[in-house]
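pls design
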Protein backbone atom coordinates (compact mmCIF):
# COMPACT_ATOMS: atom_id res chain seq x y z
CA UNK A 1 0.00 0.00 0.00
CA UNK A 2 1.47 3.32 -1.02
CA UNK A 3 2.02 5.70 1.89
CA UNK A 4 1.07 9.34 1.59
CA UNK A 5 3.84 11.85 1.86
CA UNK A 6 4.18 12.85 5.53
CA UNK A 7 3.24 16.53 4.99
CA UNK A 8 0.15 15.65 2.96
CA UNK A 9 -0.77 12.96 5.46
CA UNK A 10 -0.60 15.44 8.35
CA UNK A 11 -2.69 17.98 6.39
CA UNK A 12 -5.44 15.47 5.61
CA UNK A 13 -5.35 14.14 9.17
CA UNK A 14 -5.83 17.69 10.46
CA UNK A 15 -8.77 18.26 8.14
CA UNK A 16 -10.42 15.04 9.31
CA UNK A 17 -10.04 16.09 12.95
CA UNK A 18 -11.46 19.56 12.19
CA UNK A 19 -14.42 18.03 10.37
CA UNK A 20 -15.05 15.69 13.28
CA UNK A 21 -14.98 18.59 15.73
CA UNK A 22 -17.43 20.59 13.61
CA UNK A 23 -19.71 17.56 13.35
CA UNK A 24 -19.59 17.03 17.11
CA UNK A 25 -20.43 20.69 17.75
CA UNK A 26 -23.34 20.50 15.34
CA UNK A 27 -24.63 17.36 17.01
CA UNK A 28 -24.48 19.06 20.41
CA UNK A 29 -26.27 22.11 19.04
CA UNK A 30 -29.03 19.98 17.59
CA UNK A 31 -29.44 17.50 20.42
CA UNK A 32 -27.33 18.00 23.52
CA UNK A 33 -28.17 21.67 24.17
CA UNK A 34 -31.95 21.40 23.83
CA UNK A 35 -34.09 21.12 26.96
CA UNK A 36 -37.32 20.60 25.06
CA UNK A 37 -39.49 18.18 27.01
CA UNK A 38 -37.65 18.77 30.30
CA UNK A 39 -39.62 19.59 33.44
CA UNK A 40 -39.90 23.33 34.04
CA UNK A 41 -40.77 25.29 37.18
CA UNK A 42 -41.97 28.87 36.75
CA UNK A 43 -41.44 29.37 40.49
CA UNK A 44 -37.68 29.15 40.15
CA UNK A 45 -35.37 31.99 39.24
CA UNK A 46 -34.54 32.84 35.65
CA UNK A 47 -32.56 29.95 34.20
CA UNK A 48 -33.98 27.59 36.86
CA UNK A 49 -31.69 28.74 39.67
CA UNK A 50 -32.96 29.87 43.05
CA UNK A 51 -36.48 30.11 44.39
CA UNK A 52 -38.43 33.23 43.52
CA UNK A 53 -41.21 32.58 46.01
CA UNK A 54 -40.11 32.45 49.62
CA UNK A 55 -41.94 29.19 50.30
CA UNK A 56 -43.19 27.95 46.95
CA UNK A 57 -46.90 27.35 46.58
CA UNK A 58 -47.60 27.32 50.31
CA UNK A 59 -47.59 31.08 50.80
CA UNK A 60 -50.59 33.11 51.91
CA UNK A 61 -53.08 33.59 49.10
CA UNK A 62 -52.87 37.39 49.23
CA UNK A 63 -49.61 39.30 49.46
CA UNK A 64 -48.95 42.31 51.62
CA UNK A 65 -49.97 44.79 48.92
CA UNK A 66 -53.59 43.56 49.09
CA UNK A 67 -53.96 43.36 45.30
CA UNK A 68 -51.62 40.50 44.40
CA UNK A 69 -52.57 36.86 44.65
CA UNK A 70 -49.94 34.22 45.31
CA UNK A 71 -50.29 30.76 43.73
CA UNK A 72 -51.74 28.11 46.03
CA UNK A 73 -51.84 25.13 43.68
CA UNK A 74 -52.62 22.51 42.68
CA UNK A 75 -49.30 22.69 40.90
CA UNK A 76 -49.37 21.80 37.20
CA UNK A 77 -46.64 19.70 35.62
CA UNK A 78 -44.95 21.84 32.97
CA UNK A 79 -42.41 20.79 30.39
CA UNK A 80 -40.33 23.00 28.12
CA UNK A 81 -41.91 23.51 24.71
CA UNK A 82 -39.56 26.11 23.24
CA UNK A 83 -36.80 28.48 24.32
CA UNK A 84 -36.84 32.04 22.97
CA UNK A 85 -33.71 33.89 21.91
CA UNK A 86 -33.69 35.84 25.18
CA UNK A 87 -33.62 32.62 27.19
CA UNK A 88 -37.22 32.71 28.39
CA UNK A 89 -39.26 29.54 28.00
CA UNK A 90 -42.64 28.51 26.70
CA UNK A 91 -43.79 25.54 28.78
CA UNK A 92 -46.79 23.32 28.17
CA UNK A 93 -49.11 21.23 30.28
CA UNK A 94 -52.48 19.52 29.98
CA UNK A 95 -55.40 21.01 31.88
CA UNK A 96 -58.40 18.95 32.93
CA UNK A 97 -61.04 21.62 33.51
CA UNK A 98 -62.85 20.93 36.76
CA UNK A 99 -65.82 23.15 35.91
CA UNK A 100 -66.21 22.48 32.19
CA UNK A 101 -65.12 18.86 32.03
CA UNK A 102 -62.94 19.79 29.03
CA UNK A 103 -59.33 18.59 28.82
CA UNK A 104 -56.87 20.40 26.59
CA UNK A 105 -53.32 21.66 26.21
CA UNK A 106 -52.16 24.99 27.59
CA UNK A 107 -48.89 26.78 26.86
CA UNK A 108 -47.52 29.52 29.13
CA UNK A 109 -44.74 32.07 28.74
CA UNK A 110 -43.51 34.38 31.48
CA UNK A 111 -41.31 37.46 30.90
CA UNK A 112 -37.90 37.98 32.47
CA UNK A 113 -39.39 40.34 35.04
CA UNK A 114 -41.44 37.49 36.51
CA UNK A 115 -38.22 35.82 37.67
CA UNK A 116 -36.67 38.98 39.13
CA UNK A 117 -36.53 38.71 42.97
CA UNK A 118 -37.66 42.32 43.35
CA UNK A 119 -41.08 41.27 41.99
CA UNK A 120 -41.33 38.16 44.21
CA UNK A 121 -44.27 39.62 46.15
CA UNK A 122 -46.12 41.18 43.20
CA UNK A 123 -48.79 39.88 40.91
CA UNK A 124 -48.43 40.08 37.13
CA UNK A 125 -51.03 40.87 34.45
CA UNK A 126 -52.29 37.95 32.37
CA UNK A 127 -52.95 37.93 28.62
CA UNK A 128 -54.92 34.92 27.35
CA UNK A 129 -53.92 34.57 23.69
CA UNK A 130 -56.20 32.68 21.30
CA UNK A 131 -55.48 31.49 17.76
CA UNK A 132 -57.74 31.55 14.74
CA UNK A 133 -59.18 28.69 12.73
CA UNK A 134 -60.06 25.63 14.80
CA UNK A 135 -57.29 26.20 17.33
CA UNK A 136 -57.32 22.46 17.94
CA UNK A 137 -54.38 20.59 19.41
CA UNK A 138 -52.09 23.61 19.05
CA UNK A 139 -51.98 27.38 19.41
CA UNK A 140 -50.08 29.25 16.71
CA UNK A 141 -49.04 32.07 19.07
CA UNK A 142 -46.42 29.62 20.43
CA UNK A 143 -44.64 29.50 17.06
CA UNK A 144 -41.41 31.44 16.44
CA UNK A 145 -42.46 32.48 12.94
CA UNK A 146 -44.97 35.12 14.06
CA UNK A 147 -42.57 36.76 16.61
CA UNK A 148 -45.44 37.39 19.00
CA UNK A 149 -43.72 36.48 22.25
CA UNK A 150 -40.45 38.07 21.15
CA UNK A 151 -42.42 41.29 20.58
CA UNK A 152 -44.13 41.13 23.98
CA UNK A 153 -40.78 40.49 25.66
CA UNK A 154 -39.03 43.33 23.85
CA UNK A 155 -41.86 45.79 24.50
CA UNK A 156 -41.97 44.87 28.19
CA UNK A 157 -38.22 45.50 28.38
CA UNK A 158 -38.48 48.95 26.79
CA UNK A 159 -41.55 49.92 28.82
CA UNK A 160 -44.08 50.13 25.97
CA UNK A 161 -45.99 47.09 27.23
CA UNK A 162 -46.68 45.52 30.59
CA UNK A 163 -44.73 42.32 31.30
CA UNK A 164 -47.63 39.95 30.71
CA UNK A 165 -47.81 36.30 31.64
CA UNK A 166 -49.05 34.98 28.29
CA UNK A 167 -51.37 31.97 28.46
CA UNK A 168 -52.10 30.14 25.21
CA UNK A 169 -54.80 27.46 25.52
CA UNK A 170 -56.23 25.40 22.71
CA UNK A 171 -59.36 27.03 21.38
CA UNK A 172 -61.32 23.82 20.85
CA UNK A 173 -61.03 20.24 22.17
CA UNK A 174 -61.39 18.78 18.68
CA UNK A 175 -61.50 19.99 15.09
CA UNK A 176 -64.90 21.64 15.46
CA UNK A 177 -65.64 25.24 16.34
CA UNK A 178 -67.66 26.02 19.47
CA UNK A 179 -67.56 29.84 19.47
CA UNK A 180 -65.85 29.72 22.89
CA UNK A 181 -69.32 29.12 24.33
CA UNK A 182 -71.37 26.62 26.30
CA UNK A 183 -73.51 25.37 23.42
CA UNK A 184 -76.17 22.98 24.80
CA UNK A 185 -75.12 19.37 24.49
CA UNK A 186 -71.54 20.30 23.53
CA UNK A 187 -68.25 20.72 25.42
CA UNK A 188 -68.49 23.75 27.69
CA UNK A 189 -65.86 25.87 25.98
CA UNK A 190 -67.14 29.13 27.47
CA UNK A 191 -66.62 27.74 30.97
CA UNK A 192 -63.24 26.30 29.99
CA UNK A 193 -62.02 29.64 28.64
CA UNK A 194 -63.35 32.03 31.28
CA UNK A 195 -63.27 29.87 34.42
CA UNK A 196 -61.01 26.82 34.14
CA UNK A 197 -58.11 28.53 32.36
CA UNK A 198 -58.03 31.55 34.72
CA UNK A 199 -58.28 29.29 37.79
CA UNK A 200 -55.36 27.24 36.47
CA UNK A 201 -53.33 30.44 36.04
CA UNK A 202 -54.16 31.65 39.55
CA UNK A 203 -53.18 28.25 40.96
CA UNK A 204 -49.71 28.39 39.39
CA UNK A 205 -48.69 32.04 39.03
CA UNK A 206 -48.54 35.32 40.89
CA UNK A 207 -51.52 37.26 39.56
CA UNK A 208 -53.85 40.08 40.60
CA UNK A 209 -57.09 39.69 42.51
CA UNK A 210 -59.07 42.09 40.36
CA UNK A 211 -60.07 42.32 36.71
CA UNK A 212 -57.39 45.01 36.35
CA UNK A 213 -54.87 42.26 35.71
CA UNK A 214 -56.77 40.17 33.15
CA UNK A 215 -57.09 40.55 29.38
CA UNK A 216 -57.65 38.52 26.21
CA UNK A 217 -56.01 38.63 22.81
CA UNK A 218 -57.20 36.68 19.79
CA UNK A 219 -57.29 36.68 16.02
CA UNK A 220 -60.08 35.66 13.63
CA UNK A 221 -62.23 33.09 15.45
CA UNK A 222 -60.04 33.62 18.50
CA UNK A 223 -60.70 37.35 18.15
CA UNK A 224 -64.41 36.62 18.43
CA UNK A 225 -63.89 34.63 21.63
CA UNK A 226 -61.70 37.38 23.10
CA UNK A 227 -64.32 40.03 22.29
CA UNK A 228 -67.24 37.96 23.54
CA UNK A 229 -65.53 36.83 26.74
CA UNK A 230 -64.74 40.36 27.91
CA UNK A 231 -68.23 41.66 27.08
CA UNK A 232 -69.90 38.67 28.74
CA UNK A 233 -67.76 38.85 31.89
CA UNK A 234 -66.70 42.47 32.45
CA UNK A 235 -66.46 41.71 36.17
CA UNK A 236 -63.58 39.28 35.44
CA UNK A 237 -61.76 40.72 32.42
CA UNK A 238 -60.99 44.32 31.58
CA UNK A 239 -59.53 44.42 28.08
CA UNK A 240 -59.10 42.60 24.79
CA UNK A 241 -57.15 42.87 21.57
CA UNK A 242 -59.52 41.51 18.93
CA UNK A 243 -57.80 41.06 15.56
CA UNK A 244 -59.65 40.40 12.30
CA UNK A 245 -62.55 39.10 14.40
CA UNK A 246 -65.79 37.43 13.64
CA UNK A 247 -68.44 39.76 15.09
CA UNK A 248 -71.31 37.32 15.57
CA UNK A 249 -71.44 33.65 16.66
CA UNK A 250 -71.46 31.36 13.64
CA UNK A 251 -70.93 27.80 14.86
CA UNK A 252 -73.31 25.37 13.07
CA UNK A 253 -73.93 23.75 16.45
CA UNK A 254 -76.14 26.67 17.53
CA UNK A 255 -78.92 25.18 15.38
CA UNK A 256 -82.11 24.81 17.46
CA UNK A 257 -80.71 27.08 20.18
CA UNK A 258 -81.43 30.64 18.98
CA UNK A 259 -81.81 32.16 22.45
CA UNK A 260 -78.53 30.74 23.68
CA UNK A 261 -76.85 31.90 20.49
CA UNK A 262 -78.20 35.43 21.03
CA UNK A 263 -76.89 35.39 24.61
CA UNK A 264 -73.37 34.91 23.19
CA UNK A 265 -73.61 37.56 20.50
CA UNK A 266 -71.17 40.47 21.12
CA UNK A 267 -73.73 42.93 19.76
CA UNK A 268 -76.31 41.83 22.32
CA UNK A 269 -73.74 41.71 25.12
CA UNK A 270 -72.45 45.18 24.26
CA UNK A 271 -75.96 46.64 24.09
CA UNK A 272 -76.81 45.14 27.48
CA UNK A 273 -73.63 46.52 29.05
CA UNK A 274 -74.40 50.00 27.73
CA UNK A 275 -77.99 49.84 29.02
CA UNK A 276 -77.01 48.49 32.43
CA UNK A 277 -73.52 49.78 33.14
CA UNK A 278 -71.99 48.81 36.45
CA UNK A 279 -69.57 51.09 38.24
CA UNK A 280 -65.97 50.01 37.76
CA UNK A 281 -66.70 47.67 34.85
CA UNK A 282 -65.58 49.71 31.85
CA UNK A 283 -64.01 47.50 29.18
CA UNK A 284 -61.28 48.38 26.68
CA UNK A 285 -61.51 46.79 23.24
CA UNK A 286 -58.59 47.23 20.85
CA UNK A 287 -59.61 46.13 17.36
CA UNK A 288 -57.03 45.33 14.68
CA UNK A 289 -57.50 44.77 10.96
CA UNK A 290 -55.19 44.66 8.00
CA UNK A 291 -55.77 47.41 5.45
CA UNK A 292 -56.48 44.76 2.78
CA UNK A 293 -59.15 42.94 4.82
CA UNK A 294 -62.77 43.09 3.72
CA UNK A 295 -64.14 43.08 7.27
CA UNK A 296 -63.10 46.67 8.06
CA UNK A 297 -66.65 48.05 7.57
CA UNK A 298 -68.09 45.47 10.00
CA UNK A 299 -65.58 46.34 12.69
CA UNK A 300 -66.13 50.07 12.22
CA UNK A 301 -69.89 49.61 12.42
CA UNK A 302 -69.57 47.69 15.70
CA UNK A 303 -67.38 50.46 17.10
CA UNK A 304 -69.83 53.14 15.96
CA UNK A 305 -72.85 51.34 17.40
CA UNK A 306 -71.35 50.16 20.70
CA UNK A 307 -68.20 52.17 21.40
CA UNK A 308 -69.87 54.34 24.01
CA UNK A 309 -70.51 54.54 27.73
CA UNK A 310 -68.57 51.77 29.51
CA UNK A 311 -67.21 50.38 26.22
CA UNK A 312 -63.98 52.07 25.14
CA UNK A 313 -62.68 51.16 21.70
CA UNK A 314 -59.62 51.68 19.55
CA UNK A 315 -58.89 50.64 15.95
CA UNK A 316 -55.47 49.81 14.52
CA UNK A 317 -55.51 49.47 10.72
CA UNK A 318 -52.23 47.80 9.76
CA UNK A 319 -50.81 49.13 6.44
CA UNK A 320 -50.69 46.47 3.71
CA UNK A 321 -51.97 44.00 6.28
CA UNK A 322 -53.92 40.85 5.55
CA UNK A 323 -55.74 38.27 7.64
CA UNK A 324 -52.78 36.60 9.36
CA UNK A 325 -50.84 36.58 12.66
CA UNK A 326 -47.86 38.56 11.30
CA UNK A 327 -50.17 41.48 10.45
CA UNK A 328 -51.66 41.49 13.93
CA UNK A 329 -48.29 41.36 15.69
CA UNK A 330 -47.34 44.50 13.72
CA UNK A 331 -50.55 46.10 14.96
CA UNK A 332 -49.79 45.20 18.55
CA UNK A 333 -46.34 46.72 18.22
CA UNK A 334 -47.78 49.85 16.58
CA UNK A 335 -50.04 50.67 19.49
CA UNK A 336 -52.64 48.09 20.51
CA UNK A 337 -50.54 46.39 23.17
CA UNK A 338 -49.45 49.70 24.66
CA UNK A 339 -53.07 50.89 24.75
CA UNK A 340 -54.47 47.97 26.72
CA UNK A 341 -51.36 48.03 28.94
CA UNK A 342 -52.19 51.60 29.94
CA UNK A 343 -55.52 50.39 31.36
CA UNK A 344 -54.23 47.37 33.29
CA UNK A 345 -52.29 46.91 36.50
CA UNK A 346 -48.50 46.70 36.43
CA UNK A 347 -46.34 44.63 38.80
CA UNK A 348 -44.75 46.61 41.63
CA UNK A 349 -41.21 45.98 42.84
CA UNK A 350 -40.70 45.46 46.54
CA UNK A 351 -36.94 46.13 46.67
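designed seq:
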Amino acid sequence: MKRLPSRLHRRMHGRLIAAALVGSALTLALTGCSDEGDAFDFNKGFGGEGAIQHSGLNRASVSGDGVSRMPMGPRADFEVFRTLDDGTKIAQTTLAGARSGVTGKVWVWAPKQYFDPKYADSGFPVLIALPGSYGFDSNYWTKPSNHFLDTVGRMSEDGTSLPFIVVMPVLNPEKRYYDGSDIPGQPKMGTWMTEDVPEFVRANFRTFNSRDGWAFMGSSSGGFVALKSVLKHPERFKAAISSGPDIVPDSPMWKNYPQQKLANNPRKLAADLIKRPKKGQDVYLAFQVGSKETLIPRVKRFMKDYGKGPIKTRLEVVPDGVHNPATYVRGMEAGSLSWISSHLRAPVPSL
